[in-house]
Amino acid sequence: MASPPPIRNQIRRLRFDHGEMTQQALADAIGMTRQTIVAIEAGKYSPSLEAAFRISRVFGVGVEDVFGWEG
Amino acid sequence: MSFREKTAWVSLLATTGVWGLYFWRLWPDLQDRSLQPGSVGLFIGGVVILTVIQIIVAIALALASGKAADAPMDEREQLIDLNGSRAGFYALNAACFCASALWLIGASPVVMANAILAAMVVGEVIRSGFVIVGYRRGV
């Protein structure tokens, strides 16, 4: 099993701050599946740069406000 | 569990079950070196049963999953699929190489054909297995 990447994200908190947006709503907004959003939130998958920008645009913040390198 | 993970499980279980039963029934003949071309009937039966199982289960899964069944793969699903295909490709190559080596010990064409079929089964099982692991543990 590959070790999880040292990248942490604030998606769960940002969803909460945006009217408790559901994972499905976020997934629909960026053209992904809910399972992929679950994997990203859990740190099991690091999205592409394009997907990272799409997520940050949904929340109206910068990419660095959503994702951060932890190491 | 996502639609595509369920599909991978169906492929793994159906492939393992049908071809496992096929080779289990064929094994005594292989050991006696008395394998006859008549085993083609068993092979065709396996292909038909596997096809019917996968079609029926795929339709049932699609109906149960709704729009998720029609949605294109996203980047994570594509990566999982690619990882599975790569692992399956290497396994298929290695197993085909081993099957080809049977020619050196004088295996009959029917035995060779079944060895190549076994190689394809191994490749598919490895592919499906890697896809499931990708969905379970992440990529």
What topology emerges from the helices and strands here?
The complex is a heterodimer of chains A (71) and B (139).
Chain A: E1 7-9, H1 11-17, H2 23-30, H3 34-41, H4 49-59, H5 63-66, E2 67-69
Antiparallel strand pairs in A: 1-2
Helix pairs in contact in A: 2-3
Chain B: H1 3-32, H2 39-65, H3 75-101, H4 109-137
Write up what this structure looks like.
The complex is a heterodimer of chains A (71) and B (139). Chain A has 71 residues and is mainly alpha-helical. Chain A has one domain (7-61): lambda repressor-like DNA-binding domains (434 Repressor (Amino-terminal Domain), Orthogonal Bundle), CATH 1.10.260. Helices cover 54% and strands 8% of the residues of chain A. The two termini of chain A are 20 Å apart. Chain B has one domain. Chain B contains four helices and no strands. The A-B interface holds A 1-2, 4, 31-33, 35-36, 39, 42, 44-45, 47-48, 51 and B 2, 5, 68, 71, 74-77, 135, 137-139.
Our measurement of the CA-to-CA distance between the termini of chain A, rounded to an integer number of angstroms, reads: 20 Å
* CATH class bucket of chain A: Mainly Alpha
Overall structural class of chain B, as computed from helix and strand content, comes to: mainly alpha
Query: What form of chain B results from the Cα inertia axes?
Result: flat
Largest interface: A-B, 15 and 12 residues
In short:
The complex is a heterodimer of chains A (71) and B (139). By secondary structure, chain A is mainly α.
Q: Any descriptors?
A:
heterodimer; A: 71 residues; mainly alpha; 434 Repressor (Amino-terminal Domain); two-stranded antiparallel ribbon; 5 helices; globular; B: 139 residues; 4 helices; 81% helix
